[in-house]
Amino acid sequence: MPPRGNSEQTSRARLSSVIKSARDTMRKDAGLNGDLDRLPQLSWLLFLRAFDAMEANREVWDDDFRPAIIEKYRWRAWAGNPFLTGDDLLTFVNDELLPHLRGLKADRPGDPRNVLSALFKDIRNQMMSGYLLRDLLDGLQKIDFTSSDDIHTMAFLYESILKEVRDAAGDSGEFYTPRPVIRFMVEQSFLRLGESILDPACGTGGFLVEALENLQGGTGSTHERQQLWRNLRGIEKKPLPYLLCMMNLILHGVESPSVIRDNALTRMLDEQGQKVHVILTNPPFGGEEENSVAARFPTAVRTKETAWLFLHSVLTKLRPGGRCAIVLPNGVLFGDGAGTAIKEKLLRECDLHTIVRLPQGIFAPYTQIPANLLFFDKTGPTKEVWFYQIDPPEGRKNYSKTKPLRYEEFADCAAWWGGTDRASRTTTNHAWSVPISDIIRAGYNLDLSNPTVSNDLAHRPPAELLADLLTTERGILNLLESLQRDLKVGK
Fold this sequence. Notes:
The protein is α/β, with parallel strands linked by helices. It contains 19 helices and 9 strands. It catalyses: a 2'-deoxyadenosine in DNA + S-adenosyl-L-methionine = an N(6)-methyl-2'-deoxyadenosine in DNA + S-adenosyl-L-homocysteine + H(+).
């Protein structure tokens, strides 16, 4: 029997060839333009292939098994039929298969039929050639989703494809959390089995997959694994990231992901009685919510700035004793108006124990907006806030797609952290603490720089100065808009 390492290398080489062939096939089709078209097409087909394999496995060991999809529409029946091709295949997929999947419904929460109907609500087959679609299906048949080697390798390959589509999406205004940031936030949240973990802006599932990998080594039974899957919860508003998130989790072994496609802000307002232990998230920032959403928030915290509304929603969604790690832009730290009320609520109800100030350009080249990681526990009022400044490696001035942030750059901060009780923290050239009285006296401004480092403008890069200026201008604009709204209502 060959060593496992050789088996994995063989599996990776074979599956890399399968995926390359699949992408080459899709490039020939006139209906697909670029990876932002090709990846969704590949993803929903892979989903059905993986789902069919999971159902085949359940048929073996589950005496009460009932297929979620009737025989005619199961992958093995149509995708496995080499004689169904050309226009007949397109007609079947477009007029029968996809409408059937969208129409599935069940009364029992968590039923796979509800997952399928939600997932395929906005899915459309974009391939125009039924013959190329047949070639694609035949290639995907070569992936063995009952093999642990194939599943592990497919997850690895899918992550690499996701990175490519994230890069492409970034060019159109969307950008995703770098994997080193996700890993650091998950590790410093000290997750425990049995806790409910939510990402209300889950995108393609980076935080959920990292939490899964962080915890699944402690699961010893099928029941514990299934409980972990149920405890990993996500909400995503846009159909493409939702599809990619579902596929990402399935390829990482989660049979029925607890991910909902919805506006997280309204969803969390509607489910205020359903609290969670942990929230890990990077909410969208720099955008605005529609008026009908903002109007549902209390008057004192009403704003259209998405990041502010997410922070307020997180505070109400956490259960007592719960904790959160969240990515927020600098503008949230010093924002006024509704922002002051939200920060006052944060510091009154939670222990904001740590703010990690990230280097400039973490999300480059998509945005130069400076970002921070906020860690807080819903255990009572803040007494002091620790700040930790992470600087770029020596000689590095900025980050890019070819020179991204590395996980090793968080090593010193992780060593300084001090475990779950944070008892061993000390002031260093990178770390300092500020008592709550000083923060209140400063009007709840949390945009505090390292007091041990000179802020000499002459030695700061022009791009950094421009980014800070834009952030300040946005903060001023938000304040002026808030004052204008107050004047309109006669305040």
